[in-house]
């Protein structure tokens, strides 16, 4: 049975005070805790005040819960905390010790606590370090809380994992449970004298698997291939050629959507054999079945962007390829209307990100990040491949700041096509994208400011040669000369920003930030944003950034109020 032990003198609170509710309470506990070394008391108190200062809150307004403190810290960008990452990490460690000392929650064994005889006897039977180290934490918690080895079952594991979650704030409990149950069961099978009861390992979350195209009848496969060829515009002079061929990325999405729709319908009809054609797939009754499976039911029907996109694709195929009867098209249009239109404006996630950059300190740190990464490449501790990667992240972020293009275009930049130096390397430089390469068929040209041009020149002169790519035309190259993929570049940019700024930001969000900065500086200049981002239709810009007009109006109104306050003060 898992019980709470009598704590040792080393972990016992010196005073029977109630558990703290806020950091102010913890500071009070520290002041009256005369059993704690004076130097340790001052260090813990200083750490708690450091965290409060970083959060910009009074001690009484910060809960005495490390999970909540971590959540509050995560919402404050690193540059707005006023402390280095090392200072924050040290403060977190000392604050955690103080909170554990005065918390009434059952804790984990203090460092150095020995196993009781029963558990020590089992530990001595383990044949290698892998099992001993892997089960050590689990055995120490069970021993400390008086749970005998023969009492270990799934319920006991749940309680031990919950204890770990409370103290470590849930950071690694999933891996802890999986490792403990797996190694315990291995010990049951291989270690003589080990308790014989096996534990139930955690069940991994299963992802719904969709059928491959090859699972469907040949007739469906042939028609799908013919449709994609037609939509790609392989025969532009054909009588029924599409008015506008689809781009490769749109074709991949279209194929993905149709495969998923066919897979869902197959699961509901009991097999893929009946799905012999696209005509069968886009019948209104079948479209309803497919879309219903993706709807999130509740008081209000929630419709994802994927579901709306799937509905539009099925209706488009029915109209343009199948030539469905008008009655069927009317019903598909009715279904699409029932799903509603996509909400305009930025998502809550994007709005939250942009608000972080309202703080000039945070924006300045992002603007200076390329220079910071550039300096990091000069250290001798980095290998040539790591220097190349670090400089690539510096250049990629710099380019996104001055030319907010999409990540697919950024990763596909070629020195022989997209980077132009009309008067040589001593003069201006440009990023040029042809209309066939952009999402909206728009020709885009971005002049590079001097600091971006100089950074690119340094990258090309000193760092790109590490890749030994020979005649590789790509701007961003891997060792050997192959192009860095969009996914790899996206991941590197996200990690660099998270590491240096403490902010979760994707390359695409540079576009939203660019719009916010432009509109803050030039209120109402929606046309400027359209041209900057390369939107073909200004309605796209208006719909995406309509909410920012509230920001503009609020800022203008604040200035009006400020001027009236000054006028009133003069009288």
Protein described:
The chain has a three-stranded antiparallel sheet with strand order 1-2-3, with no helix packed on it. It is mainly α and 571 residues long. The relative contact order is 0.06. Among the domains are: 23-102; 213-338, no CATH class; 360-508, Orthogonal Bundle (hpI Integrase, Chain A), CATH 1.10.443. It has helices spanning 23-32, 38-55, 66-74, 85-102, 117-125, 129-144, 154-168, 173-190, 218-232, 248-269, 278-281, 284-292, 305-322, 326-338, 348-356, 360-367, 369-376, 384-402, 407-411, 450-463, 486-501, 509-521, 526-533, 538-545, 548-570, and strands at 419-420, 430-433, 444-447. Helix 7 packs antiparallel against helix 8 (173-190). Helices cover 57% and strands 2% of the residues. The longest helix is centred in the last third of the chain and has 23 residues, at 548-570. Mean pLDDT is 86; it is low at 4-15.
Strand neighbour order, sheet with most strands: 1-2-3
The level-1 CATH class of the domain at 360-508: Mainly Alpha
Query: What is the overall shape?
Result: globular
State the major sheet.
3 strands, antiparallel
As residue ranges, the low-confidence spans are 4-15
* Count of separate DSSP helical elements: 25
Question: What's the CATH architecture name of the domain at 360-508?
Answer: Orthogonal Bundle
Find the structural class using helix and strand composition: mainly alpha
- What's the end-to-end separation, in Å? 77 Å
What would the average pLDDT be, to the nearest integer? 86
What is the CATH homologous superfamily assignment of the domain at 360-508?
Intergrase catalytic core
- Helical amount among residues, as a percent range? 55-70%
Portion of residues in beta strands equals under 5%
Compute the number of strand runs. Answer: 3
Radius of gyration: 31 Å
- Write the element-wise H/E pattern from the N-terminal end onward: HHHHHHHHHHHHHHHHHHHEEEHHHHHH
What is the fold-level CATH name, i.e. the topology of the domain at 360-508? hpI Integrase, Chain A
């Amino acid at each position: 049975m898992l019980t709470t032990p009598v704590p040792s003198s080393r972990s016992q609170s010196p005073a029977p005070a109630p558990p703290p509710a806020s950091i102010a309470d913890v500071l009070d506990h520290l002041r009256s805790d005369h059993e704690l070394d004076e130097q340790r008391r001052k260090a813990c108190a200083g750490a708690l005040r450091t965290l409060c200062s970083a959060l910009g809150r009074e001690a009484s307004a910060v809960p005495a819960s490390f999970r909540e403190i971590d959540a509050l810290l995560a919402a404050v960008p690193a540059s707005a905390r006023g402390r280095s990452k090392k200072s924050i990490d040290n403060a977190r460690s000392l604050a955690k010790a103080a909170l554990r000392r005065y918390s009434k929650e059952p804790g984990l064994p203090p460092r150095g606590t020995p196993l009781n005889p029963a558990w020590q006897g089992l530990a001595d039977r383990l044949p290698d370090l892998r099992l001993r180290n892997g089960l050590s934490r689990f055995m120490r918690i069970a021993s400390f809380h008086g749970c005998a080895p023969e009492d270990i079952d799934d319920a006991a594991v749940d309680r031990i994992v919950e204890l770990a979650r409370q103290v470590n704030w849930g950071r690694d409990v999933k891996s802890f449970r999986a490792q403990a149950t797996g190694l315990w069961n291995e010990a049951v099978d291989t270690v003589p004298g080990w308790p014989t009861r096996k534990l139930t390992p955690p069940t991994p979350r299963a992802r719904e698997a969709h059928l491959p195209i090859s699972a469907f009848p040949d007739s469906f496969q042939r028609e799908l291939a013919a449709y994609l060829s037609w939509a790609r515009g392989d025969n532009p002079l054909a009588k029924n050629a599409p008015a506008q061929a689809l781009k490769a990325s749109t074709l991949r999405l279209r194929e993905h959507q149709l495969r998923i729709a066919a897979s869902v319908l197959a699961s509901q009809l009991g097999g893929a054999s009946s799905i012999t054609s696209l005509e069968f797939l886009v019948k209104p009754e079948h479209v309803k079945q497919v879309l219903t499976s993706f709807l999130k039911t509740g008081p209000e029907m929630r419709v994802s962007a994927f579901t709306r996109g799937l509905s539009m694709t099925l209706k488009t195929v029915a109209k343009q390829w199948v030539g469905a009867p008008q009655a069927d098209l009317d019903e598909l249009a009715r279904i699409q209307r029932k799903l509603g239109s996509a909400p305009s404006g930025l998502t809550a996630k994007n709005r939250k990100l942009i608000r972080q950059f309202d703080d000039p300190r945070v924006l300045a740190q992002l603007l200076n990040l390329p220079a910071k990464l550039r300096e990091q490449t000069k250290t001798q501790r980095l290998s040539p491949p790591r220097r190349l990667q670090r400089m690539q992240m510096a250049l990629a972020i710099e380019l996104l700041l001055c030319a907010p293009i999409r990540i697919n275009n950024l990763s596909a930049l070629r020195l022989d096509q997209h980077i132009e130096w009309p008067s040589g390397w001593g003069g201006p430089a440009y990023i040029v994208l042809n209309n066939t390469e952009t999402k909206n068929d728009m020709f885009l040209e971005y002049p590079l400011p001097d600091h971006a041009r100089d950074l690119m020149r340094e990258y090309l002169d000193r760092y790109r040669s590490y890749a030994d790519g020979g005649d590789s035309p790509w701007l961003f190259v891997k060792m050997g000369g192959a192009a860095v993929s969009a996914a790899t570049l996206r991941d590197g940019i996200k990690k660099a920003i998270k590491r240096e700024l403490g902010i979760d930001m994707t390359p695409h969000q540079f576009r939203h930030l660019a719009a916010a900065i432009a509109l803050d500086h030039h209120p109402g200049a929606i046309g400027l944003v359209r041209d900057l981002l390369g939107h073909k239709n200004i309605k796209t810009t208006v719909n995406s950034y309509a909410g920012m007009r509230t920001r503009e109006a609020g800022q203008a109104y604040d200035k009006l109020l400020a001027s009236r306050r000054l006028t009133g003060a003069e009288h």
